[in-house]
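Teaching soon. Got one?

===
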Amino acid sequence: MCQTIPARVVRIDGDQAWVEGSLASVSLLGVDAVAIGDYILHQAGLALGRVEPEEAEAILAAFRELDALYEQEERRAGQESLGLSQRARP
């Protein structure tokens, strides 16, 4: 399954845009009225749509929270595999 997260447009040249965190351009052919600073959803080099800033920030916050939970779980799993979990300590 592919996922897309909002990305902020930092440059536009004709029907191509560049977003934060990416060196590749994104085609804007299917999306109207995109401006620098707007958030878009894109996949495989194609803009899928614009996202309001409030919605983009909420989505990004949710992904940051998921990332933090994933990192916690990875650390816990690593400690358990080394016998360092709280349950294994005397």
